């Protein structure tokens, strides 16, 4: 039986991860339009017109105990700059995935993603008590693969012909993970990387 857990606010120095709700539709529609992220064929960012359905799907998965979804708010500007999610949460086997992550173009290559991953990994290992956290990405999404490796995740393998995409192409999915005994070193590395963003 899956225990019901609701997303809670996770606060960092630069960003706030707040539980995703339908009230975020306008702000997230604006954020995803910065860079027209839905046009990037290797990401899963929604079109602004699909934002309501995107959020409803995330909330439905949360109700089943399979996900915890967040909107990412920039603390300095107060703006919503993206979204991320704990997903494919297998509570019985203490595993989950961090995915469905996208940021407005202006927030890319900033501290936002590093701090969001630090907050979510800390929550996963230290509050939800998982044994492993997975990350999955498109074989051709080199930037994402490099970012996942920089987090300290190790490649588990490649799921070939894993998914049929909306444009008719087939996705090979690269699977990475961080396991519980690696978490202390990964946390230290992420905190060290965050230091370069301190003013």
From TrEMBL:
Keyword Oxidoreductase set for record: no
**Residues covered by the N-acetyltransferase domain:** 15-154
Gene Ontology MF annotations: acyltransferase activity, transferring groups other than amino-acyl groups
**What UniProt keywords are attached to this protein's entry?**
Transferase
Read off the Pfam families from this record. Acetyltransf_3
Q: Look up keyword GTP-binding and say if it applies.
A: no
Q: Which Gene3D superfamilies match?
A: 3.40.630.30
Q: What is this protein called?
A: N-acetyltransferase
UniProt organism field: Shewanella canadensis
Which taxonomic lineage does the organism of this UniProt entry have?
Bacteria, Pseudomonadati, Pseudomonadota, Gammaproteobacteria, Alteromonadales
């Amino acid at each position: 039986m899956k225990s019901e857990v609701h997303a809670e606010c996770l606060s960092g120095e630069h960003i706030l991860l707040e539980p995703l709700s339908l009230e975020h539709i306008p702000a997230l529609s604006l954020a995803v339009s910065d860079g027209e992220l839905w046009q990037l064929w290797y990401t899963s960012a929604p079109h602004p017109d699909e934002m309501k359905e995107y959020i409803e799907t995330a909330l439905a998965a949360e109700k089943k105990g399979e996900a915890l979804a967040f909107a990412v708010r920039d603390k300095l500007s107060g703006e919503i700059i993206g979204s991320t999610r704990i997903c494919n949460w297998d509570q019985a086997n203490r595993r989950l995935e961090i995915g469905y992550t996208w940021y407005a173009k202006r927030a890319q290559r900033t501290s936002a993603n590093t701090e969001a991953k630090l907050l979510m990994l800390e929550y996963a290992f230290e509050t939800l008590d998982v044994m492993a956290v997975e990350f999955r990405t498109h074989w051709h999404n080199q930037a994402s693969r490099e970012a996942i490796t920089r987090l300290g995740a190790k490649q588990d393998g490649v799921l070939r012909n894993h998914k049929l995409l909306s444009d008719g192409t087939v996705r090979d999915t690269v699977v990475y993970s961080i396991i519980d005994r690696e978490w202390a070193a990964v946390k230290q590395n992420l905190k060290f990387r965050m230091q370069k963003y301190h003013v």
